[in-house]
Write a structure and sequence with these properties.
The chain is an alpha+beta fold. It has two domains: 171 residues, Peroxisomal Thiolase, Chain A, domain 1, CATH 3.40.47.10; 143 residues, Peroxisomal Thiolase, Chain A, domain 1 (3-Layer(aba) Sandwich), CATH 3.40.47.10. Helices cover 32% and strands 27% of the residues. The longest helix is centred in the last third of the chain and has 22 residues. It binds coenzyme A (COA). Coenzyme A binds next to helix 2, helix 6, helix 7 and strand 14. The site of coenzyme A (COA) has 21 residues, from helix 2, helix 6, helix 7 and strand 14.
Length: 319
């Protein structure tokens, strides 16, 4: 038995922050941000709008597209780095907001920008093994809450948003393989190192990053993970119809595609419209390409992501 995606959904908060808006906040320019990252604008959650609220909108759209009811969901795996609270998990809060009572397991995955890839790979194991019937897999972030808005090296890069898919049992091929990796020795290179102790924040709660190190590492491991997925399925790069990369930076996306020998016409890019939305970026890009009709039945699709940890991975599927 396989697991297959039967519905996608996404949500971006209404408020838009453009590069020109950022010019008034830090010493930066629209030109610098576009050239170095490809980002034009990002969306910012309203005060009080939490990761679970964004997830709820994206999930409703995915459930509608799947043609099922929320009550049919018997597994929720939610990837986020910006949970509503320390506990309970944002997945449990989402389950409640969806009105699912007496449901199956619901839990969060924390793999930063690879979170959705990790969550999808995990859900596939539950669904394809017959343990669950309909999984809701979500990536949702309110990164605006963990950005230092005076630090131009990080605040221009990220945004808020959510994406979701419904994964169900199928006799037809869906997810064909997943490939997850981590290298914890890089844990300080990209981090929000603060923690809470005795009711006080210890260390910085904001994102810190060695941009150049992240850039080089990302291109290297993304190429490796996608190649691993292609080889595992006895395919060639030319067999890939669509590459859906983590939307961090257009230069990382282009460099990875070039190393893989996949033309940019086959790469879905949405980073210009919402910046790096971490765990939400892959399902956001997937939903946009599904809804505009680019991704068609039976096509071969590869999703990939890399993030703090470092963590990285790829999922290869037949649509
Ligand atoms: N606006 C204007 N100038 C900026 C700036 C900004 N927002 N941020 C940094 N700069 C300056 C730097 O201070 C530096 O100035 P200097 O030469 O006077 O010292 C100059 O621009 C070049 O900085 P550098 O860091 O070498 O630029 P870069 O080409 O490596 O681009 C990133 C920086 C962050 C865009 C790039 O390293 C990157 O994309 N890294 C990966 C980040 C990422 O995707 N993280 C998440 C992964 S999941």
């Amino acid at each position: 038995m396989y697991s297959k995606i039967i519905g996608t959904g996404s949500y971006l908060p209404e408020k838009i922050l453009t590069n020109h808006d950022l010019e008034r906040m830090v010493d930066t320019s629209d030109e610098w941000i576009r050239e170095r990252t490809g980002i034009v604008q990002r969306h910012i959650a309203a005060d009080g709008q939490m990761a679970s609220d964004l997830a709820l909108e994206a999930s409703r759209r995915a459930i509608d597209a799947a043609g099922i009811q929320a009550q049919d969901i018997d597994l929720i795996i939610l990837a986020t780095t910006t949970p509503d609270m320390i506990f309970p998990s944002t997945a449990c809060i989402l389950q409640d907001k969806l009105g699912i009572s007496g449901g199956g397991p619901a839990f969060d995955v924390q793999a930063v920008c690879s979170g959705f890839i990790y969550a999808l790979a995990t859900a596939d194991m539950f669904v394809s093994s017959g343990k669950c019937r309909n999984a809701l897999v979500v990536g949702t972030e309110v990164y605006s809450r963990i950005l230092d808005w005076t630090d131009r090296t990080t605040c221009v890069l990220f945004g808020d948003g959510a994406g979701a898919v419904v994964l169900t049992q199928s006799n037809q091929p869906g997810i064909l393989s997943s490939h997850l990796h981590a290298s914890g020795s890089y844990n300080k290179v990209l981090a929000a190192p603060g923690n809470i102790c005795g009711g006080k924040i210890q260390g910085s709660p904001f994102i810190t990053m060695e941009g150049n190190t992240v850039f080089k590492f990302a291109v290297k491991v993304l190429e490796e993970a996608v190649s691993e997925a292609i080889t595992a399925n006895n395919l060639q790069a030319s067999d890939i119809d669509w590459l859906i990369p983590h939307q961090a930076n257009i230069r990382i996306i282009k460099s990875t595609a070039k190393k893989l020998g996949i033309p940019m016409e086959k790469v879905v890019t949405t980073v210009d419209q919402h910046g790096n939305t971490s765990a939400a970026s892959v399902p956001l890009a997937l939903d946009i390409a599904v809804r505009d009709g680019r991704i068609k039945s039976d096509q071969c699709v590869v999703l990939e992501g890399v993030g703090g940890g470092f963590t990285w991975g790829a999922v290869l599927l037949r649509w």
